[in-house]
Amino acid sequence: MQYPDYPTKINGSVSHDVFLQYLRNYTDHFQLRKYIQFNTLVTKVFPVKGNGGWRTATWQMKMRNLNTNRKNVTICDGVMICNGHFAKPYIPEIPGLKETFPGKILYSRNYRVPEVFTNKTIVVLGSGNSAIDIAKDLGNYTKRIYLSYRSYKNNVTLIHDLHNPGNVKEVLNVLSANGSELTLQDNSTIKVDNFIFCTGYSFDFPFLDNRSGLVFEKNAVRPLYAEIFNVEYPSMGFIGLTDNIYYNDWYYIQVEDFASVMIGIVELPNYQTMLKNSNMI
Predict the structure, then answer these.
(1) CA 207 to chain CA mean position, Å
(2) Which DSSP helix (H) or strand (E) runs through 225?
(3) Cα angle 27, 113, 10; round to 5
(4) How far is 232 from 144, CA to CA, in rounded Å?
(5) Which terminus of the chain has a smaller tally of CB atoms within 10 A, N or C?
(6) pTM higher than 0.85 for the full model?
(7) Which residues make beta-bridge pairs with 177?
(8) How many beta carbons lie within 10 A of that of residue 148, not counting itself?
(9) CA dist., res. 105 & res. 56, Å (int)
């Protein structure tokens, strides 16, 4: 997860505090802090059309300082959207869960420490990295962990990834809840004390509207060329929408690609070619 231009030796486990310090060191090494506006909310970004194609379009950016509530407007030649897609949790509707479940319900991004779940029976819904990490973290504290996900089959298991202490059981997807009793996809039932969602995130760009020329879905922004460039206005690039990759290496490459186009080192194909090869098709 290190950036290619700032390799460093990291001793011990790579916990969140170690990686946070790496980011701080990176910021200081390249003297980036002076370019960062902290406590600033971007409320709106939209294009102002020029007369000579996308390169003459500019972007109006409206911002608000969260400390002073002061509003500001900036005009930019290009915009990189880098707010990622790990902020707005995707929580599937499970009939009866909100209405009848008596225990604690939380999402993976709100999970902090395992001790509060000591001697509890937990269902972890999901099969991705967060689900596996949390199940592993809870293993030595809980009475029982049910790892629930739709693609579970008896002969395909994630438990070997957990160094299972013996209290993790994989089960089918949760269909409904009646109090603390959950009905699974095979109509069997389990009883749990707490429910943890590890079901991914939805893309969220509240500062963009249809003036950007884009269509926003739960987990897609269209049309993007090369998973970066807004086909309608290529001076807007999206960094970090891909998944299941070495994030920082890939983000670094995406930023290089966008910057190379903006300064004229690389030329993009024409509109029709970009649209044909975008994720709209």
Answers:
(1) 17
(2) strand 224-225
(3) 35
(4) 51
(5) C
(6) no
(7) 182
(8) 26
(9) 50
